[in-house]
Amino acid sequence: MSQPSSSVTLTSKTSSALFMNKKNKNKKRNKDSSSSSSSSSKKGFASSLRALQMDAFQYAGSIKPGQQSPQKVVLEENIMRPDYADDGKPKAKPQMLPWIIEVKKEAEIQKMRAAGRVAREVLDIAGRAVAPGITTDEIDNIVHRESLLRGAYPSPLNYHGFPKSCCTSVNEVICHGIPDDRKLVEGDIINLDITCYLDGYHGDCSEMFVVGGETDDESKKLLQATYDCWVKAMEFVEPGKDYKDIGAIIEDHVTERGFTTVKNFCGHGIGSVFHTNPNIFHYRNSEPNGQMAPGHTFTIEPMICQGTSQVLSWPDQWTATTRDGKRTAQFEHTLLITRDGVEALTGKIETSPIQFWEKESEVHQGLWLGTTPAARERAASLSAQKS
Prior knowledge:
Elements: E1 3-4, H1 31-56, H2 106-129, H3 136-149, E2 153-154, E3 167-170, E4 173-175, E5 189-198, E6 201-210, H4 217-236, H5 245-255, E7 260-261, E8 265-269, E9 276-280, E10 297-300, E11 303-305, E12 311-313, E13 320-322, E14 328-330, E15 333-338, E16 341-344, H6 356-359, H7 373-386
Antiparallel strand pairs: 1-8, 2-5, 3-5, 4-13, 5-6, 7-11, 8-9, 10-15, 11-14, 12-13, 15-16
Helix pairs in contact: 2-3, 4-5
Protein backbone atom coordinates (compact mmCIF):
# COMPACT_ATOMS: atom_id res chain seq x y z
CA MET A 1 0.00 0.00 0.00
CA SER A 2 1.67 3.18 -1.21
CA GLN A 3 2.01 6.39 0.74
CA PRO A 4 1.83 9.98 -0.55
CA SER A 5 5.14 11.33 -1.79
CA SER A 6 4.61 14.53 0.18
CA SER A 7 4.90 14.74 3.94
CA VAL A 8 1.19 15.41 4.31
CA THR A 9 -0.52 12.81 6.48
CA LEU A 10 -3.37 10.86 4.93
CA THR A 11 -6.72 12.23 6.01
CA SER A 12 -9.08 9.94 7.90
CA LYS A 13 -12.31 9.11 6.15
CA THR A 14 -15.32 10.77 7.75
CA SER A 15 -17.96 8.45 9.19
CA SER A 16 -20.78 7.73 6.76
CA ALA A 17 -23.45 7.54 9.46
CA LEU A 18 -25.95 10.39 9.26
CA PHE A 19 -26.99 12.17 12.43
CA MET A 20 -30.63 13.15 12.90
CA ASN A 21 -31.41 15.97 15.36
CA LYS A 22 -34.17 15.27 17.80
CA LYS A 23 -35.77 17.73 20.20
CA ASN A 24 -35.11 17.04 23.85
CA LYS A 25 -38.05 17.41 26.21
CA ASN A 26 -35.72 18.84 28.85
CA LYS A 27 -34.84 22.50 28.38
CA LYS A 28 -31.44 22.06 29.99
CA ARG A 29 -28.73 19.73 28.76
CA ASN A 30 -25.49 19.01 30.50
CA LYS A 31 -22.20 19.98 28.91
CA ASP A 32 -21.28 16.45 27.81
CA SER A 33 -24.62 15.96 26.10
CA SER A 34 -24.34 19.26 24.24
CA SER A 35 -20.78 18.50 23.17
CA SER A 36 -21.74 15.05 21.92
CA SER A 37 -24.72 16.41 20.01
CA SER A 38 -22.64 19.15 18.41
CA SER A 39 -19.93 16.70 17.37
CA SER A 40 -22.44 14.26 15.90
CA SER A 41 -24.17 17.07 14.02
CA LYS A 42 -20.89 18.08 12.46
CA LYS A 43 -20.22 14.48 11.41
CA GLY A 44 -23.70 14.19 9.97
CA PHE A 45 -23.32 17.41 7.99
CA ALA A 46 -19.88 16.35 6.72
CA SER A 47 -21.25 12.99 5.57
CA SER A 48 -24.18 14.61 3.79
CA LEU A 49 -21.83 17.09 2.11
CA ARG A 50 -19.53 14.26 1.06
CA ALA A 51 -22.45 12.41 -0.53
CA LEU A 52 -23.36 15.51 -2.51
CA GLN A 53 -19.75 15.93 -3.61
CA MET A 54 -19.60 12.33 -4.80
CA ASP A 55 -22.81 12.76 -6.83
CA ALA A 56 -21.60 15.98 -8.48
CA PHE A 57 -17.98 14.91 -8.98
CA GLN A 58 -16.60 14.74 -12.52
CA TYR A 59 -14.98 11.31 -12.77
CA ALA A 60 -12.21 10.81 -15.30
CA GLY A 61 -13.27 7.46 -16.72
CA SER A 62 -15.77 4.63 -16.45
CA ILE A 63 -14.97 3.68 -12.85
CA LYS A 64 -17.26 5.33 -10.31
CA PRO A 65 -17.87 4.59 -6.62
CA GLY A 66 -20.39 1.91 -5.78
CA GLN A 67 -22.13 0.92 -2.57
CA GLN A 68 -19.83 -0.07 0.28
CA SER A 69 -20.70 -2.72 2.83
CA PRO A 70 -20.25 -1.87 6.53
CA GLN A 71 -16.69 -1.61 7.81
CA LYS A 72 -15.46 -4.72 9.61
CA VAL A 73 -13.92 -4.83 13.07
CA VAL A 74 -11.45 -7.51 14.17
CA LEU A 75 -12.34 -8.73 17.66
CA GLU A 76 -10.67 -12.15 17.66
CA GLU A 77 -8.43 -12.42 20.73
CA ASN A 78 -5.81 -14.51 18.91
CA ILE A 79 -5.19 -11.75 16.35
CA MET A 80 -2.53 -9.15 17.22
CA ARG A 81 -3.87 -5.79 16.11
CA PRO A 82 -1.83 -2.75 15.05
CA ASP A 83 -1.96 0.37 17.21
CA TYR A 84 -4.38 2.13 14.84
CA ALA A 85 -7.00 -0.65 14.76
CA ASP A 86 -9.39 1.11 17.15
CA ASP A 87 -9.04 4.83 16.39
CA GLY A 88 -7.41 4.83 12.94
CA LYS A 89 -4.35 6.74 14.19
CA PRO A 90 -0.87 5.18 13.92
CA LYS A 91 1.13 5.99 17.06
CA ALA A 92 4.70 5.66 15.76
CA LYS A 93 6.55 8.94 15.29
CA PRO A 94 8.14 9.32 11.84
CA GLN A 95 11.90 9.74 11.61
CA MET A 96 12.77 13.41 11.16
CA LEU A 97 15.74 12.71 8.85
CA PRO A 98 14.93 10.77 5.64
CA TRP A 99 18.26 8.93 5.56
CA ILE A 100 17.82 7.39 9.03
CA ILE A 101 16.67 3.83 8.25
CA GLU A 102 16.00 1.00 10.70
CA VAL A 103 18.26 -2.06 10.40
CA LYS A 104 16.27 -5.18 11.25
CA LYS A 105 17.74 -7.78 13.58
CA GLU A 106 17.55 -11.47 12.68
CA ALA A 107 14.53 -12.12 14.93
CA GLU A 108 12.68 -9.23 13.27
CA ILE A 109 13.61 -10.48 9.81
CA GLN A 110 12.15 -13.88 10.59
CA LYS A 111 8.88 -12.25 11.65
CA MET A 112 8.86 -10.23 8.44
CA ARG A 113 9.41 -13.38 6.41
CA ALA A 114 6.36 -14.91 8.08
CA ALA A 115 4.24 -11.79 7.48
CA GLY A 116 5.40 -11.64 3.87
CA ARG A 117 4.51 -15.29 3.31
CA VAL A 118 1.01 -14.73 4.68
CA ALA A 119 0.52 -11.65 2.48
CA ARG A 120 1.61 -13.68 -0.57
CA GLU A 121 -0.78 -16.52 0.25
CA VAL A 122 -3.69 -14.11 0.70
CA LEU A 123 -2.84 -12.24 -2.52
CA ASP A 124 -2.74 -15.49 -4.51
CA ILE A 125 -6.10 -16.62 -3.11
CA ALA A 126 -7.69 -13.23 -3.85
CA GLY A 127 -6.20 -13.28 -7.35
CA ARG A 128 -7.73 -16.67 -8.10
CA ALA A 129 -11.14 -15.17 -7.31
CA VAL A 130 -10.78 -12.44 -9.96
CA ALA A 131 -13.35 -13.17 -12.67
CA PRO A 132 -16.14 -11.42 -14.58
CA GLY A 133 -19.12 -10.81 -12.31
CA ILE A 134 -17.40 -10.83 -8.93
CA THR A 135 -17.51 -7.59 -6.96
CA THR A 136 -14.47 -5.99 -5.38
CA ASP A 137 -16.33 -6.14 -2.07
CA GLU A 138 -16.51 -9.93 -2.40
CA ILE A 139 -12.75 -9.97 -3.01
CA ASP A 140 -12.30 -7.85 0.13
CA ASN A 141 -14.34 -10.39 2.10
CA ILE A 142 -11.99 -13.13 0.89
CA VAL A 143 -8.93 -11.11 1.88
CA HIS A 144 -10.35 -10.39 5.32
CA ARG A 145 -11.30 -14.01 5.98
CA GLU A 146 -8.04 -15.50 4.70
CA SER A 147 -5.93 -13.01 6.69
CA LEU A 148 -7.69 -13.92 9.93
CA LEU A 149 -7.46 -17.65 9.19
CA ARG A 150 -3.68 -17.22 9.14
CA GLY A 151 -3.64 -15.31 12.42
CA ALA A 152 -3.05 -11.95 10.74
CA TYR A 153 -4.77 -8.58 10.79
CA PRO A 154 -5.49 -7.00 7.36
CA SER A 155 -3.25 -3.93 7.69
CA PRO A 156 -5.27 -1.44 5.57
CA LEU A 157 -8.36 -1.85 7.77
CA ASN A 158 -8.90 1.46 9.61
CA TYR A 159 -5.40 2.70 8.76
CA HIS A 160 -6.00 6.46 8.87
CA GLY A 161 -9.66 5.45 8.59
CA PHE A 162 -9.42 3.31 5.44
CA PRO A 163 -12.70 1.34 5.50
CA LYS A 164 -11.67 -2.00 3.96
CA SER A 165 -9.17 -4.84 4.33
CA CYS A 166 -7.43 -4.36 0.98
CA CYS A 167 -7.21 -1.96 -1.96
CA THR A 168 -8.78 -2.91 -5.29
CA SER A 169 -7.75 -0.52 -8.06
CA VAL A 170 -9.46 -1.11 -11.42
CA ASN A 171 -8.46 0.29 -14.84
CA GLU A 172 -7.80 4.03 -14.37
CA VAL A 173 -7.59 3.80 -10.56
CA ILE A 174 -3.93 4.37 -9.64
CA CYS A 175 -4.13 3.25 -6.03
CA HIS A 176 -6.23 3.07 -2.84
CA GLY A 177 -9.38 1.91 -4.61
CA ILE A 178 -12.06 1.09 -2.03
CA PRO A 179 -13.85 -2.27 -2.54
CA ASP A 180 -17.56 -1.90 -3.29
CA ASP A 181 -20.42 -3.55 -5.18
CA ARG A 182 -19.11 -2.88 -8.71
CA LYS A 183 -18.83 -6.13 -10.66
CA LEU A 184 -15.64 -6.79 -12.59
CA VAL A 185 -16.01 -6.92 -16.37
CA GLU A 186 -14.08 -9.07 -18.83
CA GLY A 187 -11.05 -7.11 -20.04
CA ASP A 188 -10.72 -5.02 -16.87
CA ILE A 189 -7.28 -4.88 -15.28
CA ILE A 190 -7.15 -4.79 -11.50
CA ASN A 191 -4.46 -4.29 -8.89
CA LEU A 192 -4.96 -6.14 -5.61
CA ASP A 193 -2.93 -4.53 -2.84
CA ILE A 194 -2.59 -6.80 0.20
CA THR A 195 -0.86 -6.10 3.50
CA CYS A 196 -0.99 -8.45 6.49
CA TYR A 197 0.07 -7.69 10.05
CA LEU A 198 1.39 -10.82 11.77
CA ASP A 199 3.10 -11.02 15.16
CA GLY A 200 3.79 -7.29 15.14
CA TYR A 201 5.11 -6.91 11.56
CA HIS A 202 3.64 -5.99 8.17
CA GLY A 203 4.07 -7.77 4.84
CA ASP A 204 2.99 -5.68 1.83
CA CYS A 205 2.55 -6.72 -1.81
CA SER A 206 0.40 -6.10 -4.86
CA GLU A 207 -0.10 -7.61 -8.28
CA MET A 208 -2.08 -7.02 -11.45
CA PHE A 209 -4.75 -9.39 -12.75
CA VAL A 210 -6.58 -9.45 -16.09
CA VAL A 211 -10.30 -10.11 -15.64
CA GLY A 212 -11.32 -13.03 -17.84
CA GLY A 213 -7.72 -13.62 -18.91
CA GLU A 214 -7.76 -11.36 -21.98
CA THR A 215 -7.53 -7.61 -22.47
CA ASP A 216 -6.62 -5.19 -25.27
CA ASP A 217 -3.11 -4.94 -26.70
CA GLU A 218 -2.43 -1.48 -25.26
CA SER A 219 -3.24 -2.72 -21.76
CA LYS A 220 -0.92 -5.68 -22.29
CA LYS A 221 1.90 -3.29 -23.24
CA LEU A 222 1.21 -1.26 -20.11
CA LEU A 223 1.30 -4.34 -17.90
CA GLN A 224 4.54 -5.56 -19.46
CA ALA A 225 6.29 -2.19 -19.16
CA THR A 226 5.19 -1.80 -15.55
CA TYR A 227 6.39 -5.26 -14.60
CA ASP A 228 9.72 -4.86 -16.41
CA CYS A 229 10.58 -1.46 -14.91
CA TRP A 230 9.74 -2.86 -11.46
CA VAL A 231 11.99 -5.90 -11.88
CA LYS A 232 14.77 -3.74 -13.35
CA ALA A 233 14.58 -1.48 -10.28
CA MET A 234 14.68 -4.45 -7.90
CA GLU A 235 17.67 -5.90 -9.77
CA PHE A 236 19.53 -2.65 -8.99
CA VAL A 237 19.21 -3.07 -5.22
CA GLU A 238 22.34 -4.01 -3.26
CA PRO A 239 24.25 -2.67 -0.25
CA GLY A 240 25.98 0.67 -0.75
CA LYS A 241 23.75 2.07 -3.49
CA ASP A 242 21.58 5.16 -3.09
CA TYR A 243 17.81 4.77 -2.78
CA LYS A 244 17.30 7.89 -4.89
CA ASP A 245 18.69 6.13 -7.97
CA ILE A 246 15.80 3.65 -8.12
CA GLY A 247 13.50 6.29 -9.56
CA ALA A 248 15.56 7.06 -12.67
CA ILE A 249 15.68 3.36 -13.60
CA ILE A 250 11.88 3.19 -13.53
CA GLU A 251 11.23 6.49 -15.28
CA ASP A 252 13.76 5.89 -18.07
CA HIS A 253 12.35 2.45 -18.83
CA VAL A 254 8.71 3.51 -19.10
CA THR A 255 9.15 6.85 -20.86
CA GLU A 256 11.11 5.15 -23.64
CA ARG A 257 7.99 3.07 -24.23
CA GLY A 258 5.53 5.96 -24.16
CA PHE A 259 4.29 5.64 -20.59
CA THR A 260 4.49 7.91 -17.53
CA THR A 261 5.24 7.34 -13.85
CA VAL A 262 3.17 8.72 -10.98
CA LYS A 263 4.95 11.15 -8.66
CA ASN A 264 2.26 11.61 -6.01
CA PHE A 265 2.80 8.26 -4.26
CA CYS A 266 5.89 6.31 -3.32
CA GLY A 267 7.27 3.08 -1.94
CA HIS A 268 8.30 3.03 1.71
CA GLY A 269 10.14 1.40 4.53
CA ILE A 270 8.15 -1.21 6.39
CA GLY A 271 8.39 -3.41 9.48
CA SER A 272 6.56 -3.05 12.78
CA VAL A 273 5.45 0.29 11.31
CA PHE A 274 3.36 0.23 8.10
CA HIS A 275 5.02 3.25 6.44
CA THR A 276 8.43 4.56 7.46
CA ASN A 277 11.86 5.44 5.98
CA PRO A 278 13.10 5.17 3.32
CA ASN A 279 10.77 6.81 0.82
CA ILE A 280 11.15 5.17 -2.59
CA PHE A 281 10.35 7.59 -5.40
CA HIS A 282 9.52 6.04 -8.76
CA TYR A 283 10.90 8.92 -10.85
CA ARG A 284 14.24 10.65 -11.31
CA ASN A 285 15.10 12.58 -8.15
CA SER A 286 17.97 13.78 -5.97
CA GLU A 287 16.33 13.30 -2.57
CA PRO A 288 18.74 12.37 0.28
CA ASN A 289 16.88 9.19 1.23
CA GLY A 290 19.91 7.23 2.37
CA GLN A 291 22.03 4.32 1.24
CA MET A 292 21.03 0.69 1.02
CA ALA A 293 22.35 -1.61 3.74
CA PRO A 294 21.78 -5.19 4.93
CA GLY A 295 18.75 -5.42 7.21
CA HIS A 296 16.75 -2.71 5.44
CA THR A 297 13.18 -3.66 4.50
CA PHE A 298 11.11 -1.57 2.11
CA THR A 299 8.77 -1.66 -0.88
CA ILE A 300 9.19 -0.75 -4.53
CA GLU A 301 5.78 -0.21 -6.15
CA PRO A 302 5.79 1.86 -9.35
CA MET A 303 2.47 3.18 -10.67
CA ILE A 304 2.69 3.53 -14.45
CA CYS A 305 0.14 5.22 -16.75
CA GLN A 306 -0.86 5.02 -20.42
CA GLY A 307 -1.46 8.78 -20.57
CA THR A 308 -0.93 11.53 -18.04
CA SER A 309 0.44 10.66 -14.62
CA GLN A 310 -1.47 13.57 -13.07
CA VAL A 311 -3.75 12.41 -10.29
CA LEU A 312 -7.46 12.99 -9.78
CA SER A 313 -8.41 12.50 -6.12
CA TRP A 314 -11.97 11.46 -5.36
CA PRO A 315 -14.06 13.08 -2.61
CA ASP A 316 -13.74 9.87 -0.57
CA GLN A 317 -10.22 11.17 0.18
CA TRP A 318 -8.67 7.83 -0.78
CA THR A 319 -9.26 6.82 -4.40
CA ALA A 320 -6.72 8.25 -6.86
CA THR A 321 -7.27 7.91 -10.62
CA THR A 322 -5.51 9.17 -13.71
CA ARG A 323 -6.78 12.61 -14.67
CA ASP A 324 -7.44 11.58 -18.28
CA GLY A 325 -9.20 8.30 -17.45
CA LYS A 326 -6.56 6.15 -19.16
CA ARG A 327 -5.37 2.93 -17.59
CA THR A 328 -2.63 2.44 -15.03
CA ALA A 329 -0.79 -0.53 -13.51
CA GLN A 330 1.29 -1.33 -10.41
CA PHE A 331 3.31 -4.15 -8.82
CA GLU A 332 4.78 -4.32 -5.31
CA HIS A 333 7.04 -6.47 -3.14
CA THR A 334 8.34 -6.13 0.39
CA LEU A 335 12.11 -6.43 -0.03
CA LEU A 336 14.97 -7.33 2.32
CA ILE A 337 18.55 -6.27 1.60
CA THR A 338 21.18 -8.87 2.53
CA ARG A 339 24.96 -8.89 2.25
CA ASP A 340 24.78 -10.51 -1.19
CA GLY A 341 21.76 -8.83 -2.75
CA VAL A 342 18.05 -8.50 -2.17
CA GLU A 343 15.19 -10.93 -1.46
CA ALA A 344 11.46 -10.57 -2.02
CA LEU A 345 9.82 -11.37 1.32
CA THR A 346 6.49 -11.47 -0.52
CA GLY A 347 7.85 -13.53 -3.42
CA LYS A 348 5.78 -16.11 -5.24
CA ILE A 349 5.47 -19.65 -3.89
CA GLU A 350 4.65 -23.12 -5.22
CA THR A 351 0.95 -22.38 -5.65
CA SER A 352 1.37 -18.91 -7.19
CA PRO A 353 0.34 -18.31 -10.82
CA ILE A 354 2.84 -17.28 -13.46
CA GLN A 355 1.54 -14.41 -15.60
CA PHE A 356 2.25 -13.55 -19.24
CA TRP A 357 4.42 -10.57 -18.25
CA GLU A 358 6.69 -12.92 -16.29
CA LYS A 359 7.00 -15.31 -19.23
CA GLU A 360 7.60 -12.55 -21.78
CA SER A 361 9.75 -10.15 -19.74
CA GLU A 362 12.73 -8.60 -21.50
CA VAL A 363 14.38 -8.03 -18.10
CA HIS A 364 13.95 -11.40 -16.34
CA GLN A 365 11.92 -14.28 -17.73
CA GLY A 366 10.19 -16.48 -15.18
CA LEU A 367 9.49 -15.78 -11.53
CA TRP A 368 11.58 -13.13 -9.76
CA LEU A 369 12.38 -13.80 -6.10
CA GLY A 370 15.53 -11.75 -5.61
CA THR A 371 19.19 -11.47 -6.58
CA THR A 372 20.86 -13.57 -3.89
CA PRO A 373 22.17 -16.97 -5.03
CA ALA A 374 19.51 -18.75 -2.98
CA ALA A 375 16.73 -16.58 -4.43
CA ARG A 376 17.97 -17.13 -8.00
CA GLU A 377 18.09 -20.89 -7.49
CA ARG A 378 14.61 -21.06 -6.01
CA ALA A 379 13.15 -18.84 -8.74
CA ALA A 380 14.66 -21.04 -11.46
CA SER A 381 13.28 -24.17 -9.83
CA LEU A 382 9.76 -22.76 -9.41
CA SER A 383 9.73 -21.35 -12.95
CA ALA A 384 10.74 -24.71 -14.37
CA GLN A 385 7.85 -26.37 -12.51
CA LYS A 386 5.38 -23.91 -14.01
CA SER A 387 6.69 -23.95 -17.61
